[in-house]
Structure formats: C-alpha cells, structure tokens
C-alpha cells in the first residue's frame, strides 16, 4: 500500500543486504552462509491477558530482525548488530562453555538475548558462529524487537544444527531465554506470533492451552496503522511485576489457578474480600479476555466498526482500571478517534509509552496521520502495516 505520509521501512532483502555488508566489514571478505528473519508484532486486542492464561490477538509485522552468519570450527561466538539507534555497530564476543556449564548473562546486555537462546536451544551443543544483525523493528518501542531477536537467533541456530522443528517448543524456548537471560518475566505472546505468524492473518492465542487459531485479516479496504509515541516511561520495569502479582493475588482470593478461570460474577461476589485496586486489575483482565473473544467474532463477520469499538473499550480499561496508559498514548488514541473512517484505536503492548494501533478505512490513512501529527504533543512515527509471515530461513543471493 502506498502511503506518502507514513515512514517507510526497509524490506527484508534490503535488511539482508545491510547485514551482509556489516558482516563483511567486521569479519572480513568471507560471505555468510545462512540468512534468516523473524518479525516483530503488534497486539490488536487482549492486553495484559497472556500471563493470566487468557486470549490475545496479535499479528506478525513486516518489521523484522534479520540475522546472517556462518558456523565456525571453534567454540567462539561473535555477533555484531547494526544498532543505528546506538550510533553505530556494536559487537559482542564470547565463548561457548565446552563442559556443558551454563552460558551466564553479562555485558553487553543486548547479547543476553543471544546467549539465552543458545542456552535454551533444543539440540545442544550449539557450534561456534559469527553473525550480523540488521533490524527494522524499533528497539524498546513495544513492537517486540526482543522476541524478534530471540526468534531470529533460534531460527539461525536451526540452520546450523537442526532441532526437531516443533514450533510451540521453539517459542517456549525463546520465552525462557527472555526470562533467564534478559530478566523479563514476559508472557508467551511475542515469541509465539513471531514464530507462527501468517501473512494475511491475525493469530488468536489461547495462553492456557497454547492453542493458536489463524483469523483472516486481509481486506484491501482496511489499514492497520501503528503510531509510535516515541516515549518510554521508566515505570515499566517495576509496574509489570506489580500487575502480575495483583492478578495472582486476585485469582488466589477467588480460589482459582488464574483469572482465566473466573467470571465477573465470581469477582462481584468476592468484591468485599478484595481491595479496590486489586478488584480493578482483575476486572480489566476478566473483561479484556471476554472482549478478545468477541473481537474475533466481529472480525470473522467483517464487522470492523464493532471491532473498533472493542479496541476503544480495551484502551479505556487499560487507562482507568489497569492504569498502564500514559498521557501520550491517551492523546494518540483520542486524536485518531476524531478522524472519520477510523474504526478504533488503542495502546498496544505493556504500556507507559510505546505504540498505539489503529484500525481504519484505507482511504482515511493520510488524513489520520496528518491529524495525529497536528494534535500530538510529541513527535510520532507511523507504520502502515499488514499481517505478515512468521520467522523463516531466507535464500542468499
Ligand atoms: P521491545 O521488545 O518492545 O522492543 P524490549 O525492552 O523488550 O523492547 O527489548 C529491547 C532490547 O532488545 C534492546 O534494548 C536490546 O537489548 C535488544 N535488541 C532488540 N533488537 C536488537 C537488535 N537489532 N540489536 C541489538 N539488540 C537488540
Ligand atoms: Mg520486548
């Protein structure tokens, strides 16, 4: 889709070319043998439900992380990342323990995502390798550059030394990598959709059974616009574990394993046993799980206006009940909703900054971007996106 107002991003082959240039520049003349990519994601609805065993509805993005590289004969790993945001290439060198002892996290911290994937790779031991990374996923913008990096490296290792190819186990191994080596107790959504994503489809994930259902979403009359607020409030780190704890506490007071197993009726009956804040958190989760199920029904019927209404309800609930929005995200959503042809808009991802996702009629996209630019107090970045393919090996020229 041609959209002059949105920022253009490099496609996969451009990223491969960049990664190859970087590889040659850093490691010498030799060309890499393997190339892979894995996408970032945007969550359409179902926020803060994954760690409550609920439903989420993300889609894989055309924004991807590319890894090119080659196996080496020794036990050494060298990885270089283009990292334009950090002002130039960054390099990490480490050795794989030969005695089977764990590969500990350390510095530089970005390399911990790579180390974690090596540690949790399902066909150990991993051989030594050299690799170069190039990515179009904004780092720390809530579009899951971290999962795309993990899944890209896992896919890279599969090319060097195949595992059994089970995609769910692959996603779980990458989630483990983020838990143990990056110290982020994330849910399963990001890695799952980065592995399993399919062009023209959103992915409904049941985070309790890990069952995934593809939901067609390929209407040429529709645009999914991502707006990066370009702010990240430092609250994220401390607030996320707090929310998780509050949800666990609510579930335990209700006598259930998780909030997925509860209803609003259960919650109302137990209201006097919960403090006001815990009640609010639980209410968001229970209603958001239900909204996500409803949203899939509306999509199947092509009822985009109804889907959009649920997106706005989701946003308001995240703002008022779960309290993970911020002034910038609220501004972006309000501005988008003022434009004719916009069906719905909401914050997406953990919150306290990052991105919003907006569903609209295709003809409204330039008008919406202009209006948001005018109304937003910060400097936004826009991506016009379509549901894209999950992680894959690429052929090298
Ligand atoms: P998000 O996943 O929303 O983008 P995170 O904070 O979870 O934000 O992950 C961002 C971190 O992931 C970065 O700070 C960096 O450590 C790592 N990372 C992601 N992509 C790359 C990349 N292309 N090169 C180096 N590090 C990366
Ligand atoms: Mg992340």
Automatic annotation (TrEMBL):
Pathway: Carbohydrate metabolism; galactose metabolism. GO terms for cellular component: cytosol. PROSITE patterns: GALACTOKINASE (PS00106), GHMP_KINASES_ATP (PS00627). Pfam families: GalKase_gal_bdg (PF10509), GHMP_kinases_C (PF08544), GHMP_kinases_N (PF00288). Residues 112-197 form the GHMP kinase N-terminal domain. One of its GO terms (molecular function) is galactokinase activity. It is an enzyme of class 2 (transferase). SUPFAM superfamilies: GHMP Kinase, C-terminal domain, Ribosomal protein S5 domain 2-like. It catalyses: alpha-D-galactose + ATP = alpha-D-galactose 1-phosphate + ADP + H(+). InterPro entries: Galactokinase (IPR000705), Galactokinase_CS (IPR019741), GalKase_N (IPR019539), GHMP_kinase_C_dom (IPR013750), GHMP_kinase_C_sf (IPR036554), GHMP_kinase_N_dom (IPR006204), GHMP_knse_ATP-bd_CS (IPR006203), Mevalonate/galactokinase (IPR006206). Belongs to the GHMP kinase family. GalK subfamily. This is Galactokinase. It comes from Lates calcarifer (Barramundi).
